[in-house]
Design a protein that fits this description.
By secondary structure, the protein is α+β, with helices and mostly antiparallel strands. It has 2 domains: about 1-20 and about 200-220, no CATH class; about 30-195, Jelly Rolls (Sandwich). It has helices spanning about 1-25, 200-220, and strands at about 45-50, 60-65, 70-75, 85-90, 100-105, 110-120, 130-135, 140-145, 155-165, 170-175, 185-195. The strands form 2 sheets. The chain has a 6-stranded antiparallel sheet, with no helix packed on it. Strand 7 (about 130-135) and strand 8 form a beta hairpin. The longest helix has 23 residues, at about 1-25. It starts with a helix and ends with a helix.
Amino acid sequence: MKKTVLALLAVICLALSALHPASAQAAAILVNGSFEDGPSNGLDQFDVDVFAGSLAIAGWEVFGVGATGGAVDHLNTPWDVSDGVHAIDLDGRDSVFGGVRQNFATIAGQRYDVAFDLSGNPVGGPLLKQLLVTVGDFSEEYTHDSTGQTRENLAWDLILFSFIATGPTSTLSFMSLTGSPNSYGALIDNVRLTVPEPGMFLLVTLGVVARAMRRRIVAQRG
């Protein structure tokens, strides 16, 4: 019995070691999650307006809700972005509820984990910046307080959530809710989407079985 327990524990350790590199090498599902490929690249401008219908930010479509059609800003140096050099302000010039979205392949019923960094444009507008995030069965509003921040010194919040895919494709959407007229909205950067590590439920189950067997051996010796 003792050998059986040891063998089972060894299996668990091997499984964990096999899964760890798989997690580290997981391929990115989203394209251009940090918005590094976009229209402000190589320019001296600190931001570039990108209007609804544009595909100039690689992997992302700009959209808007409202009479003016909507726009976003592709931010550049000296903005204190969270990853790389660029980020997105969801409120471009003269926009009403600007946003960006990206379609990607999914498996119906599969869970996906999403992470992104959230901040706000402190240069003007209301201090509280709001946005709506939707994907699959998930829809949630988030708020960032930009009090005391500057363009060169931003605070970034890490946002985490999961969703269940409902079909072969899903659309991840970020839309401003900061209000109008307003050109100073929520900022997003470093968007990541991953699939939870496979086999984790099996590992947990094996661990429970191994502990139960070990307790049984101890009880028998007592």
